[in-house]
Automatic annotation (TrEMBL):
Domain of life (superkingdom): Bacteria
A GO term for molecular function: glycosyltransferase activity
Organism, as annotated: Methylocystis hirsuta
Protein name: L,D-transpeptidase
Pathway: Cell wall biogenesis; peptidoglycan biosynthesis
Length: 203
């Protein structure tokens, strides 16, 4: 089999996969120096092609520039003009802990510090030393990953986040304590698109 044939077949297969996923694959965002350093050290895991980043057709009554999270399908949509959206694969909260409803982005952080919340400490007391030390500094091993979008309602922090993850193999599953996890590269991409006040709807 010639190299030319293999290359053509590979390109055709990529187009086929994109068609199956109903969208156009999007390039990775540009990384700054710290991003490149930390991303090189962050845990790696492949995800199903359906959970990669695509530009897709998406109809909604929410305004352009909104975030819509579908807990059931494990997709997050960032709405774009012309009936389009950027679709990302996510991991969501376990059924009893999943956040639903309307919120807005009240804070944005790059490589945020992670402090275990009170309910998590009650379930996993072994994390208490981390809380006592003021949390875990941002970095490739931090559970919040590369970026965090802090969800607010009525001026108050809900304590729920949309954030990166140091467990990319969990994308597509209901595994978190309620937050919405993304691949680190996808969290960076979304972070670059949003602003304080961005509407968030979690279905």
């Amino acid at each position: 089999m010639s190299f030319r044939y293999v290359t053509a077949a590979s390109a055709l297969f990529a187009v086929f996969l994109a068609g199956c996923n109903g969208g156009t694959p999007l390039p990775d965002p540009r990384l700054n120096g710290r991003d490149a350093e930390f991303m090189a050290l962050a845990p790696k895991a492949g995800v199903s092609s359906q959970y990669e980043r695509y530009l897709v057709d998406y109809k909604t009554n929410e305004p352009v520039g909104s975030i819509i999270v579908d807990n059931r399908s494990k997709f997050l949509y960032y709405t774009m003009p012309g009936g389009k959206a950027v679709r990302y694969g996510v991991a969501t909260g376990q059924d009893a802990m999943a956040f639903t409803g309307r919120a807005y982005v009240g804070g944005l952080q790059e490589w945020p510090r992670w402090i275990p919340p009170k309910d998590m400490l009650e379930r996993w007391p072994h994390l208490q030393p981390t809380a006592d030390a003021g949390g875990l500094p941002g970095g490739p091993d931090n559970p919040l990953g590369s970026r965090a979008l802090y969800l607010y309602q009525n001026g108050k922090d809900t304590l729920y986040r949309i954030h990166g993850t140091n467990e990319p193999d969990k994308i597509g599953q209901a595994v978190s304590s309620g937050c919405i996890r993304m691949r680190d590269i996808d969290a960076i991409d979304l972070y670059n698109r949003v602003k304080i006040g961005t509407k968030v709807v979690v279905l």
